[in-house]
C-alpha cells in the first residue's frame, strides 16, 4: 500500500499584538474619584444628621439621598476605569 507524503509545516510566527498599550490615568483621576465618593458620603450623613431641617438642600427634600448616592456611584464607576 502506498504511503502519503506529509505536508511541510511552515515555521511558527507569533500573532501580532493587536491591542494598544494601556496608558496610565491622568494625575487628577484618583483625587476626583475619591472626592466624589467622600462628597456623597458627607452629603448622605449630613442629610441624616440634620433630621427635620433637611440639609444640605432643603428644597429637594428626600432627593438629597439620591444626590448623595449619585455622587458615590459616580466615584465607584470611576474605579472601573482606574489603572
From TrEMBL:
It is a multi-pass membrane protein. The keyword Cell division applies. GO terms for biological process: cell division. The chain crosses the membrane at residues 28-49, 61-79. Belongs to the CrgA family. InterPro entries: CrgA. It comes from the Bacteria. GO terms for cellular component: plasma membrane. Involved in cell division. It is found in: Cell membrane. It comes from Knoellia sinensis KCTC 19936. Residues 1-23 are annotated as: Disordered. Keywords: Cell cycle, Cell division, Cell membrane, Membrane, Transmembrane, Transmembrane helix. The keyword Cytoplasm does not apply. This is Cell division protein CrgA.
